[in-house]
Amino acid sequence: MIPGSFEYHRPSSLADAVGLLSSLGDDALLVAGGHSLIPMMKFRMAVPEHLVDLQDVKSLKSISLDSGQISLGAMVTQAEIILSDELHVACPILREVSYQIADPQIRNLGTIGGNVANGDPGNDMPAIMQVLDATYILTGPDGEREIAAREFYESAFFTARQDNEILTTIRFAAPAAGHGSSYVKQKRKIGDYATAAAAVIVTMSGDTCASASIGLTNVADTPLWAENAASLLVGSSLDGETIKAAADAAKAITDPADDGRGPKDYRTHIAGIMVQRAIANAVDRAK
Description:
By secondary structure, the protein is α+β, with helices and mostly antiparallel strands. The protein is 34% helix and 27% strand. It has helices spanning 14-24, 37-42, 78-83, 85-90, 93-98, 104-107, 112-117, 125-131, 149-152, 227-233, 240-252, 264-285, and strands at 7-9, 28-31, 50-53, 63-66, 69-73, 135-140, 143-148, 153-155, 158-159, 166-173, 180-187, 194-205, 208-217, 224-225. α10 packs antiparallel against α11.
């Protein structure tokens, strides 16, 4: 299908972009890489009168690692995340998940900000940001404000971002040295949205789990941080019984839809398997 008519804006600064959103109001939508918004426009699920393209806002394209803190500009692409060796050393799960998003053509334009900001429960990065306990920086006419990734998602396609705000930066502490991480995704075909997926980060103290974080993708109308499931791992030797208990606790918070990816019970079952596999991978990778 063909999108409805709209007026196109391409600001060159963040201030100009915020100004446009404020002046145009509810009639304007932001576009970053466009791979989420443009299909919705083609199906007339989104019919903006104005489109504000962030491609020329250079201040949103930076990757920064400083004193153990990682900052990603919202317009950093999945391909740029993959190509950053420094970022991979500090937080290898980012490259792992980026490789599982769509295909190279989309990864060359698809942005980290677009992936986390639009509230699509099928997007992969939101669960990663919850596992990393990331903070989102939002900029609007009244300046900046911060909100935790774990508090950002309200329901499918609804988030804490106001219409006149732009998500500009994603910030989080690099995982501890020697940690292990994994993102395991079951899907119908390469590049597809997940039937169910799990992200896990663990640190070990000898044979004992010192810390753990678990996130889930596409098994509810928001990404999920499985806090109780992760807490079961801490202090354990990560024996089979404990890992199964953690997977069961993660399954208990899911609420997937019956859709083309399978019935609800099947997707819940797959979520548990993904958690168990991600834990096993993360432990193997922990130094």
